[in-house]
Each structure stands twice: as C-alpha cells, then as structure tokens.
Design goal:
472 residues; alpha/beta; 8 strands; 55% helix
Length: 472
Amino acid sequence: MFEQLSSRMSRVFEGLSRGGKLSEADVSEAMREVRLAMLEADVALPVVRSFVAKVKEKAVGEKILEGVSPGQAVAKIVNDALIESLGGAGVAPLNMAASAPVPLLMVGLQGAGKTTTAGKLALRLAGRERKKIMLASLDVQRPAAQLQLQQLAQQAALLTEGRVASLPIIAGQQPVEIAQRALETARREGFDVVILDTAGRLAIDEALMNEVREVRDVSRPAETLLVVDAMTGQDAVNTAQAFKDQIGISGVVMSRMDGDARGGAALSMKAVTGAPIKFTGSGEKLDALEEFHPERVAGRILGLGDIAGLVEKASEQLDQEEGERVAKKMLAGKFDLDDYVSQINQINKLGSISGILGMLPGMGKIKEKLEGKDIDTSIFNRHKAIISSMTRQERKTPGIIKASRKKRIAAGSGTTVPEVNRLLKQFDEMSTMMKRVSKMGLSGLMRGAGGAGGLGNLMKGLGSQKGPSSFH
C-alpha cells in the first residue's frame, strides 16, 4: 500500500546533489518533494507540516560522512522521522496486566473487518501465547454477526487444540447483558481472555457511542482496540479521532493493509489520535494478522526493505530447522546455489514474488516494472535443471565454472551456455547484495538500492531467458 509513496521518496533522495555538507537549498528542495509525496499519499496536512519541519531542522547543516551521499544522509533522517510518526521503534504490545479473564473490547464502524479481526486476534493469542480465549459477539444489529463470530471461533479452535470458544447465543439479549454474561462465564470456566466484539454502524452516531460506552463501563477493558479499514484513507483517521474523543481507545488495528490505498492513514494515525497501531490485517485468513513494526514499515517506504520481516516470515512458513538455516545464511551474507534451489522449492510457501521483493532493499523499481504482471515460475524450474547438472563443488563455489564446464552443464540440463551464464551472473549479483544486507548499515543498504543488483537483476532476467515467455 506504500508503493507510490516509496517510489516518490526514492526519487527525492536520488536527486540530491553531492557534497560534504547539506545546504539549506538542497534540503528545502528535497522537503518540497517529500511534502508533495506525503500529501499525495493522503497524509493529514498537520502531520505533513510537523514532519517536514522536523526533518528540515535536523538536516540543514548536517555533515556528510565519507562514503555517504547527501541522499543517503537525508534518507536516514527521514527514516528516523517516519519511525517517530508511525509510533516509535518497537511493537506496541497488548496490555494483559489485568486479572483473568482479561477483557479486550473491539470497536469500529460496520464493514471495517472488526469481527474477522476478533477471530484473528483470538487465534494469535491462543496459538502463540497458548491463552484460553472466549469470543463474545455483542452485535445485535447485524443478523448474521453472532453466527459469524461463532464460526470463526470454531475454526480457531481446530487450529489451537480447542483453546478458543464462543459464548453461546441467547436470542433477545442486549449488548450490556451479553458482556456481563461473557465475563461471568469466562471467569467460571477458567478463560484467560474475553474478546468482546461490539456492533458497528455505517457512520458514527450517538446511539452507537452510547452503546459502546455502556459496554466499556461494564467490562472495564484492559484494551479498547479500534479496527479501521486502511482503504478508507483519512476517513479512517477521522473515525479514530471520534472514537478517541467519545470512548477512548488504547490501540488501533488497521485492516486491509494488502489493498492499494495510499498509506496516509497509517502515517497520520498516531499523531492525530495518540493511540499506536498495534496490529495490521491483510486478507481474510485467520492467520493474516501481524504486529505493527514502525521501523520495518519506514524501511519499506524508503526502499530499505524488511529483511527482519522476511526472515520472520520464512521462519514461520518453513519448517523450523530449514528456517533457521536460511535465516543464518542470509544474514551472514553466505548463500550458495544449493540454498538457491532450496528457496525455489520453498518460494510458494513464502507467498508471491512481488511480496518478497517488497521486503528486500532497493527492489521498488523492479516491482514497478513487474506491476500488473504475473511471473511464470517455470523459469525457476530451468534454473533448477541447470544447477542439478553441476557437481557438488560447482554448486558450492560457482567461481570455478569456466567454459568447458558451462558446455557440460548446458548439455546436461537441456539449456544453452548463454542461459547458464545469465544464471551465474544473476546469482553472483544476488550474493553481493546479500553481503551488503548482512552489514545492516544504511550505507550498505542504500548502495544496493535502485534495483541495480542482486535479486533485482535476477527478476529482470526472468524476462530475458530463452524459451517460454517469462511473463503472462
């Protein structure tokens, strides 16, 4: 959702002149572009003004370290400011410091994904923290709402050895009565957490706020989580402001973060409401709820990638032993052709190639070129055929592969010597990028930016291979 903003930001930093010190003219020009980029991304105007003023104050006169361009220096300052705008470094954890059962109150407008998010949160707490969770629907406005939450609880129970349950439905009960019964039942039956899913409305009205206030006063929640639809942009921020003023919220969950909205709501939310974004949802699957990491989001906006997130995703999706092995080798900057084949085998488990590109440094431009195109992964099968025709020593040390070996490998894999050359060149560039990333320094990351090397060239190479079309 931040791709447009990321693209604009990258162009800003590329345009800065070189020199040993940032001039006011350099910074002012860059900040004009940053301001436009943020406004186009639907960031609230007061937030944009405050952001630009902070960055300009820190950037003017900043001395440029040797080997670091002015663009990289400003990118570092902007990165720090983005993290601050998004809520500060580190995850904002759920407050579970209350006597069991801990009440969590879910609030928001109708259609924001509140009920689905309640189910996702139940699965997360039951699966990762092994808590016993009760889900209770207080939505008597929408006929199918209580049944929907009941079904979500059943799905989560199957995935967590029965640690999720829903409160039995009693027709005719009102929200306050349901909340009281949920807390009493959970207390009696030894549940750790009660998630109360309140009703929504198509718009904010007094009846909704009164109902939520009554439930809040009865349940005394440890957390009041507002679920907002990221696709609604500044309307989501306005909704959050209204709930903050009338109910009080302790955190925000942004749903539909996999959509094509411009991202301004996320950048405005903390500054406008004072409440941190705690989770983000992407898709309808019950496991599609993630903790919100401001530093990772800032890195992706600036094209610095999210290696930590990629490693985390790999560790979750792959088996544990393989995940640890791949994570260690990636972060150490060591990656051979056997590892490449292993990752080809696991690529579908990690999700779309476009999603993976977004988590790697400097891949923004490659993603733009691939926009709207599905990658035909049969190219990876040809890569596997080429690598399988190599000896063990050749796979571990590709540098020894010279002309005669290339002919043997091409003949054995049913490919051509130019195809073998392209694979070796692309793999060498990928290895170089991995080594830069392993240093985790801004300079190393930025030098890999722009899609000039590494996986970027590998992806560009997909379109230039002989044989069937690489794109369709």
